[in-house]
Design brief:
- By secondary structure, this protein is an alpha/beta fold.
- The protein folds into two domains: 172 residues, 3-Layer(aba) Sandwich (Rossmann fold); 170 residues, 3-Layer(aba) Sandwich (Rossmann fold).
- It has 14 helices and 13 strands.
- The longest helix is centred in the first third of the chain and has 23 residues.
- 51% of the residues are buried.
């Protein structure tokens, strides 16, 4: 007898795709006969990340939701209808038992296509729920959130599903291998700087200004500057890359992080026990500052507003921290304790419970 058929909808960005794939991995560990199908779009990272993890990808027309009234809002009903039709075709073809949505371009049509046909589970990664998940939560069987206060009524707080390569990472054991891989100094503290898959101009500019001071104080720097970002001036001890594929090794090489406060970034950095200086994006609805709120309150990191991040501020925040192993260890432990490393299996059990499958 074939196992349960789970459809995950989290296309568009890595922040939506990675939790969906982590859930898929957990479901398949708990129920090896399970079949998982991913809905995605031909935009973003869907076609790269999803097949590479071994899951079939079914393309759905993207339905970007405008943040404010515009001509795009007038086109929305037609776009939604076409995408919903495609979702229903996929649900029928794979004999879906449940749809699990994570927000993003395919979440709204996934919820509307599943409504009245198969049960829905909604996962909200951000501290403030997006429009698609607000809609889906109104008729979902279960609603799950990464942190309290998402705005979704009755949401169970479980954290964000993460890759096992992150949640089982032994940083100390991999430290030498990771530093050798990136060409970083074998000894001394290392700062990891990244701003998400597209990089971040403020981070790059502040790091460029701070780099001479960091290197002078014996601090190595691993810097993911983004595909369109600019690296700092080449200098020994500084390793710039457009993008880091093996993030678990980057975490193993590092002693602290300077980065944005996207939900996935905060969850991963906390799970591996790295202290961080979080610099929330200055636009949107303020969710990035809220994402980092719990770990900062626990003592595992600091918040610096985007407008205040300069080279001098980088040195002020990070030089004392990176020179103090005891403080690094204490903040790392606080960060780890604030996270939810088992969120993948906990969410998998919620999904399986909804369809009456025992793991």
């Amino acid at each position: 007898m074939s196992g349960p058929s789970i459809v995950v909808a989290g296309g568009g960005s890595a922040g939506h795709i990675e939790p969906a794939l982590a859930l898929a991995d957990a479901v398949c560990r708990l129920v090896p006969t399970a079949r998982v199908t991913a809905l995605g779009t031909d935009r973003g990272l869907d076609a790269t990340l999803i097949p590479a993890r071994g899951y079939p990808l079914e393309l759905v027309p993207p339905v970007p939701l405008p943040r404010r009234p515009s001509t795009d809002l007038l086109r929305l009903p037609g776009r939604v209808r076409g995408a919903v039709r495609r979702v229903r075709e996929v649900l029928a073809a794979v004999d879906a038992d449940v749809v699990v949505g994570f927000g993003g371009y395919v979440a709204l049509p996934a919820y509307l296509g599943a409504r009245g046909r198969v049960p829905i589970v909604v996962h909200e990664a951000n501290a403030r729920a997006g429009l698609a998940n607000k809609v889906g939560a109104r008729f979902a069987a279960r609603v799950v959130a990464a942190v309290p206060g998402s705005g979704l009524a009755g949401a169970q707080v479980l954290g964000i599903p993460l890759r096992r390569a992150v949640t089982t990472l032994d940083r100390a054991a991999l430290r030498a291998e990771a530093r050798a891989k990136f060409g970083l100094p074998a000894d001394g503290p290392v700062l990891l700087v990244f701003g998400g898959s597209q990089g971040a101009r403020t981070l790059n500019s502040a790091l460029a200004a701070a780099l001479p001071g960091l290197i002078h104080n014996g601090i190595g720097v691993l810097h993911a500057h983004g595909k369109d970002g600019v690296a700092a001036t080449a200098t020994p001890g500084y390793v710039p890359l457009p993008y880091i594929d093996d993030m678990h090794l980057a975490y193993a090489a590092a002693d602290a992080v300077l980065g944005r406060a996207g939900a996935m970034t905060v969850a991963e950095v906390s799970a591996v026990g790295l202290p961080a200086v979080y610099v929330p994006l200055p636009h949107g609805n303020g969710e990035q500052a809220l994402n980092a709120g719990p770990v900062v309150a626990a003592g595992g990191g600091y918040l610096v507003p985007d407008a205040e991040l300069t080279g001098d501020r980088v040195l002020t925040e990070l030089l004392p921290l990176l020179a103090d192993p005891q403080r690094l260890a204490a903040m790392g432990a606080a960060a780890r304790a604030s996270g939810h490393a088992d969120a993948d299996e906990r969410l998998a059990r919620v999904v399986l419970d909804v369809i009456g499958v025992r793991a």
